[in-house]
Design brief:
This protein is of the alpha+beta class. The chain is built from 14 helices and 8 strands. Helix content is 64%, strand content 15%. Strands 1, 2, 3, 4, 5, 6, 7 and 8 form an 8-stranded mixed beta sheet that branches. Strand 2 and strand 3 form a beta hairpin.
């Protein structure tokens, strides 16, 4: 059963990881498409500016306005296509759904073919030599570089392959020999090979970025899982250890020190104060006490109105859990004395600590679970804390805690056998502080 639950938890985490990674890839795809749209708009601006500033140059390049108009139409069609792709990516982002692989490759082919079509138009206008030595062959590099944002090695390599093969095919078809009749296949092949190599390099960079994104998402997913299980009151140090050592989702038997803390007379004091004053006073005291817990390796498992339940030894095992709990309790009493000396609303706390076995794990309904501890150890610690009212004390520990402390508990004062509500047999209780 435990192995089944752990396998199911790993499957859930894997689904969360894949979903978030898909979203990250789609976000980078959006950036790539936006960059291509910007590139297309810049091309339109340059075409227009060239024609307006020096019509003679435009005439030499396009041999009249017909060729220029055809380029306008191609670029405008490209922009419309990219706007459609942008809308599809945004739609898939909202639906938490990835783009089909086939559509990605078709899109890469269509995009990378734009420079090829424009190059053919310029060859017909300018001639093969001038066109192939002009700007268009460099435009392929824009598409290859931006393919890095696909975070897919094979897509970037495919983009480089399409660019290289189309440029080579056009060059060999229209410009197979120079003026002296010497073949130019070597020149064109080397240039296309460089473009293909750039595609492979872009794919390698994209794959590395994808791995880094994956590592970041995995770490964030694990951190979110820890926070969801143990609450925001778990210290960053504990979160890091939990992520490194892992956490169990099924019920495990642990030996832990359970601490209950409660503010004495808080309700009576709150009656004469505004709700905001009550919250501020409680938050201030909790901040100090939780900080002490963090320093001693404990965690707050639950806030209980004007008190809380703290654990030592779970979820992280600690062989000295009882020592840590008592040390934290002593520091809490000292800290409260300092706080009370500086406020007009002094608060007195009661602490009960018991050490024993509990069932610790992720417990709750299928829709909402939380990490908690269950067992007689928890119940007895709660009863122990309540005895502070009877004895006028602030820190009570059980016999099991006293035994675990050894010499560190020599100042413990035995209060004898005490009748505890809910227990038939009297138990030995000790007072500290």
């Amino acid at each position: 059963m435990v192995s089944f639950l752990r396998a199911r938890q790993r499957a859930v985490l894997s689904e969360e990881f894949e979903r978030e990674l898909t979203r990250e890839v789609l976000r980078t795809e959006l950036l790539r498409v936006q960059a291509l749209i910007a590139t297309g708009l810049v091309m339109l601006v340059l075409l227009t500016a060239t024609f307006l500033i020096d019509p003679a140059i435009a005439n030499r390049i396009w041999r009249g306005t017909d060729g220029m108009v055809r380029e306008y139409v191609l670029v405008a069609g490209f922009l419309l296509f990219e706007v459609w792709v942008h809308s599809q990516i945004r739609r898939n982002l909202k639906l938490d759904r990835d783009l089909p692989v086939v559509r990605r490759y078709i899109g890469a082919f269509i995009e990378t073919s734009l420079p090829t079509l424009i190059l053919i138009l310029q060859i017909r206008s300018m001639g093969a030599g001038p066109a192939l030595g002009f700007v268009l062959p460099f435009v392929y590099f824009i598409f290859v570089i931006l393919s890095t944002l696909r975070l897919d090695f094979w897509l970037s390599t495919f983009t480089g392959f399409v660019a290289a093969s189309e440029l080579l095919a056009v060059a060999l078809y229209f410009d197979s020999a120079n003026a002296a009749g010497e073949p130019l296949i070597y020149f064109h092949t080397v240039r296309s090979a460089v473009i293909l190599l750039c595609g492979v390099l872009a794919g390698s960079v994209g794959a590395q970025l994808r791995r880094q994104f994956g590592a970041s998402i995995a770490a964030a997913t694990a951190r979110d899982r820890v926070t969801n299980l143990f609450g925001q009151h778990v210290s960053p140090q504990v979160v890091e250890r939990l992520m490194a050592e892992g956490t169990s989702v099924a019920g495990d038997i642990r030996r832990v020190a359970v601490m209950f803390v409660d503010f004495r007379g808080f309700t009576a004091g709150a009656q004469s104060r505004t709700p905001q004053e009550v919250v501020d006073r409680l938050d201030g005291a909790f901040a100090v006490l939780v900080d002490i817990l963090d320093r001693h390796g404990g965690i707050v498992n639950k806030f209980l109105g004007d008190g809380f339940l703290a654990l030592f030894g779970a979820p992280l095992e600690a062989s000295d859990a009882a020592h840590r709990a008592v040390a934290a309790g002593r520091d809490m009493l000292t800290a409260m004395d300092h706080i009370n000396a500086q406020t007009s609303w002094p608060l007195r706390i009661g602490i009960g600590i018991h050490f024993g076995e509990v069932v610790a794990g992720n417990i709750g309904s299928p829709r909402r679970k939380e990490y908690t501890v269950i067992g007689d150890t928890v119940n007895f610690a709660s009863r122990l804390e309540a005895l502070n009212k009877e004895f006028g004390s602030q820190l009570l520990i059980s016999a099991s805690v006293r035994e675990a402390l050894g010499e560190d508990g020599e100042d413990a004062v035995a209060l004898g056998e005490v009748t505890v509500r809910g227990y038939e047999q009297p138990v030995v209780v000790f007072q500290l502080g």
